[in-house]
Amino acid sequence: MVGKYLLNWSLKIRYKAYQKPLGVIKEMEIILNNLKELDGSFYEKLHQEGIFDHSLFSELILSIDKLNDSEMSEIERFRNSSMIWELAYKIQSSFGYHFNVNDLFKITNVDEEKLGEIGQVIGYICKSFTENQQLDMDFIHEMTN
């Protein structure tokens, strides 16, 4: 009896996953690629090459914004928020390595003042997503460009 229940539960979960709009799946893929530091992702370029790729960062922010606009349960929002906060931690850590005088890692194409502003934006994005608040894209654009 328990096995039959688990099988039905598993099928329901899989069915729900396929009900997600393709855009949401694409947005999650971008976030996951960054978390995994896959080739061509924003975080891979930042962490491995010390290059802050503005276009990949914009793509990441837009993905988070689109995901934020999608309908999701509280549990899905919590899970997605956790991933976004984890990615933010990794990005912020790279910023910290840049500012550490004892560390050889440097971000070569953005000045230190701008990195501080971008760090604030990353925190704002995470907080807004977690609280299901609309992102102020004008503010983000102003602070990151």
Rg of Cα set: 18 Å
Order of helices and strands: HHHHHHH
Described by strand count, sense and barrel closure, the largest sheet is: none
Helical proportion, percent range:
over 70%
Low-pLDDT residue intervals, each spanning 5 or more residues: 1-19
Classify the oligomer. single chain
Shape: globular
Mean pLDDT: 85
Number of domains: 1
**Cα end-to-end separation:** 59 Å
Question: What does this molecule look like?
Answer:
Helix 2 runs parallel beside helix 5, helix 5 packs antiparallel against helix 6 and helix 6 packs antiparallel against helix 7. This protein is mainly alpha-helical and 145 residues long. The chain is 74% helix and 0% strand. The protein has one domain.
Features:
145 residues; mainly alpha; 0% strand; disordered N terminus
List the helices and strands and how they pair.
Elements: H1 2-18, H2 22-35, H3 42-49, H4 54-69, H5 74-99, H6 112-130, H7 137-144
How would you summarize this macromolecular structure in one to three sentences?
The protein has 145 residues and is mainly α.
